[in-house]
């Protein structure tokens, strides 16, 4: 195995959520010389309103779109876990998968969906967020949580901070004014999801969304998170 350390990890429920949630920040990180890895939990095979689209074909398309989006941002690696869309569960197996990748890449920051958004929130988002939080703490941290992983050479790792997108309790905003266009281009790679929206309309909608998130800051466009610092 070569060098596998990445400073930042994004755990995304579906192909495209990372682009909506954190791509402007990802572009910033990469601009600062950091390595970023994506973990994509589900295959996104329910994400269509086209009744003629077959799930297998959609999963393939969405994987290609996610790969293109990540490549456009300069993400180093994209890992596809390929759980069924709308079928993600909080299982020991899923948790262990995330622990494994946290221990392989040793990220300082992990970004994912906030599981504590109330009422209407995609079940896969809720479960991804919750299992990611559990994987970070305490499971990735403790020697005895997965003795088998330690035997494979995957030793405990302490993530420094967690950024949760889609949060109702925002306490942290990152300036994406300079990386907004990279985010927009990455989002546009998800043609099966946004291809029907006129380009100008998508840009204006996205710009307004991130202007709104930057309210009260001295910069124009932001991505907003609930940030949890685990250690300083
Ligand atoms: Zn999603």
SSE succession: EHEHEHEHHEEHHHE
Number of helix segments?
8
Q: Report the end-to-end length measured between terminal Cα atoms.
A: 30 Å
Ligands, deduplicated = zinc ion
Q: Helical amount among residues, as a percent range?
A: 40-55%
Please state the average pLDDT score. 96
Q: Which strand-content bin applies to the residues?
A: 15-25%
Indicate the overall shape: globular
The Rg value, from CA coordinates, equals: 17 Å
Number of strands: 7
Topology:
Blueprint: E1 8-12, H1 17-31, E2 36-42, H2 55-73, E3 77-83, H3 92-105, E4 109-113, H4 123-139, H5 147-151, E5 161-165, E6 172-175, H6 180-188, H7 191-194, H8 199-213, E7 222-229
Parallel strand pairs: 1-2, 1-4, 2-3, 4-5
Antiparallel strand pairs: 5-7, 6-7
Structure notes:
This protein has helices at residues 17-31, 55-73, 92-105, 123-139, 147-151, 180-188, 191-194, 199-213, and strands at residues 8-12, 36-42, 77-83, 109-113, 161-165, 172-175, 222-229. With 232 residues, the chain is α/β, with parallel strands linked by helices. It has a seven-stranded mixed β-sheet with strand order 3-2-1-4-5-7-6, with helices on both faces. Helix 1 (17-31) crosses helix 6, helix 2 packs antiparallel against helix 6 and helix 3 (92-105) packs across helix 4. The longest helix is centred in the N-terminal third of the chain and has 19 residues, at 55-73. The chain is globular, with a radius of gyration of 17 Å. The relative contact order is 0.18.
């Amino acid at each position: 195995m070569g060098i596998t350390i990445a400073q930042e990890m994004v755990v995304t429920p579906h192909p495209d959520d990372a682009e909506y949630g954190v791509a402007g920040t990802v572009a910033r990180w990469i601009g600062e010389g950091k390595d970023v890895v994506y973990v994509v939990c589900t295959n996104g095979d329910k994400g269509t309103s086209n009744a003629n689209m077959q799930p297998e074909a959609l999963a393939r398309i969405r994987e290609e779109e996610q790969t293109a989006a990540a490549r456009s941002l300069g993400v180093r690696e994209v890992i596809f876990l390929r759980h069924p869309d709308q079928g993600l569960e909080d299982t020991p197996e899923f948790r262990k998968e995330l622990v494994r990748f946290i221990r392989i890449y040793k990220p300082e920051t992990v970004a994912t969906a906030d599981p504590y958004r109330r009422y209407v929130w995609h079940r896969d988002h809720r479960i991804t967020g919750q299992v990611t939080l559990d994987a970070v703490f305490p499971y990735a941290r403790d020697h005895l949580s997965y003795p088998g992983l330690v035997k494979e050479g995957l030793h405990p790792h302490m993530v420094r901070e967690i950024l949760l997108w889609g949060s109702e309790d925002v306490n942290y905003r990152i300036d994406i004014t300079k990386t907004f266009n990279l985010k927009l281009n990455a989002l546009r790679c998800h043609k099966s999801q946004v291809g029907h929206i006129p380009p100008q309309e998508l840009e204006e909608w996205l710009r307004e969304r991130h202007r709104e998130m930057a309210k009260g800051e001295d910069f124009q466009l932001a991505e907003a998170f609930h940030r949890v610092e685990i250690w300083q």
